[in-house]
């Protein structure tokens, strides 16, 4: 079958080369305490990874629905960061690499410039899900180079996407093929060869060409570049191009009986193209439900700054699973209803006012896609901020108290089982508490800052400062502390690196109008500021007992209910003075 694809690619290689040249909730892994060599190879840099940077991917894939197999070609355009010759390419079993070829070698013959192919030697190591590639010559610092990888096989099938990963082979309600991919956590190398490391996004974007029967439509990230009937066949080639950096797991094909409708939004950076791809029988429902996309974009541009991918447009695409944050092509599978499959995750009623998947997965365009963590261990940056985007969306349209209601309501889903930050260097995220506990940590920090406009500017500043970048948690933590002018390092340590929820013990003396208080069950040096909202008085409790003077309004405000509503801490009011 790979030979058939190579013959097919002859018809498109010129177009494909032009494109490459000219284009400038997540799956949570299985909890484990022991890691394999393969985990380390995936989750960290090594001597075969750290010397080269990916500039662009050019992916062509041809799925065989009946046999659940794929064949494809990936062009990887790179730049040497330092001298090197040996590369690690990630590709998960049971997919097989057929050949790796450099098609860019020019030579002169009889006065003409011609092109020859160099075949690279490689060793595929099944137990490690990698191939080691030996280039024919050393690449030197700042040198650009590219190579083509041909591969085929039966990719891992996702049984319960998006919670488990792989290729999705389903049928729609009319029994027609419906295919896609969901690989966050599992990794993009589950379906195409790549440098499957979150810290190296293709700087100049990617091209995705999908070969499908001409009875189906193929949708990808970015904008549709071309639609070509392959000669002497019943196959169509759809090529989609992303101009912006994109993380590997976000590059996704959607294949089905899609129809399209469009709209525009006059946003902070001008006209934003909105495009919606839905199964034909969902068209009328989508035209109503997807009106919420504009509401979401207006709210999030207010809170986070401009949508980060105007050049690539914004899309929602019917998906054969619940949803994922696939950049500029957000996967939608919420069955055209509000809430999370019709449920309010907060239990407050506010979560039924809007479509969870439209809001949450689109919120990832700012946090996960614009700002991406280098290591999956820091995935709280993706999920904590995006969880809090639900609170901010609710607040934008229904008021601050409604947003707070929603945020507090989500605490019932916090488990405090293991720390939010996972193990570094082994492709391992931390607790699922990165969602709700992460969002409540941000709610807590916001009320400690006690300046909503400053907090909003911090969110906007994060997206501007780290625009289209990969980051560490430390960069995010430091930025928030610097901009708020308070060192929140102990607060981050408490909520991200332990499972302890701090307790504020206090005793109120109505005669002297004082409160005596301190923190327990906390990391050493924990000093979360508590702000009394009625008067904006700021108190900075520590582990040591202290007594503070309060006026009448402040004494009335200082209750378990008020404190815990604004801050994700426990409180304990003492009967006698300590």
Any key phrases for this structure?
single chain, 578 residues, alpha+beta, Immunoglobulin-like, Neutral Protease, domain 2, 8-stranded mixed beta sheet, 5-stranded mixed beta sheet, 28 strands, 25% helix
3D architecture notes:
There is one protein chain. With 578 residues, this protein is α+β, with helices and mostly antiparallel strands. It folds into 3 domains: 1-25 and 39-252, tricorn interacting facor f3 domain (Immunoglobulin-like); 361-497, Neutral Protease, domain 2 (Orthogonal Bundle); 503-573, no CATH class. The chain is 25% helix and 32% strand. The protein is built from 14 helices and 28 strands. Strands 5-4-8-2-1-11-14-13 form an 8-stranded mixed beta sheet, with helices on one face. It has a 5-stranded mixed beta sheet with strand order 16-17-18-20-19, with helices on one face. The termini are far apart. Residues 1-30 have low confidence and may be disordered.
Q: Which outline best applies?
A: globular
User: Nearest-angstrom radius of gyration?
Assistant: 26 Å
Which CATH class of the largest domain applies here?
Answer: Mainly Beta
> What is the count of structural domains?
3
CATH superfamily of the largest domain: tricorn interacting facor f3 domain
Percent range of helical residues: 25-40%
Low-confidence stretches: 1-30
- The residue-averaged pLDDT reads 93
CATH architecture of the largest domain: Sandwich
Beta fraction: 25-35%
Instruction: Determine the CATH topology of the largest domain.
Output: Immunoglobulin-like
Per DSSP, the total helix count is 14
The secondary-structure class comes to alpha+beta
Largest sheet: 8 strands, mixed
Head-to-tail CA distance between termini: 78 Å
Number of strands: 28
Order of strands, main sheet, comes to 5-4-8-2-1-11-14-13
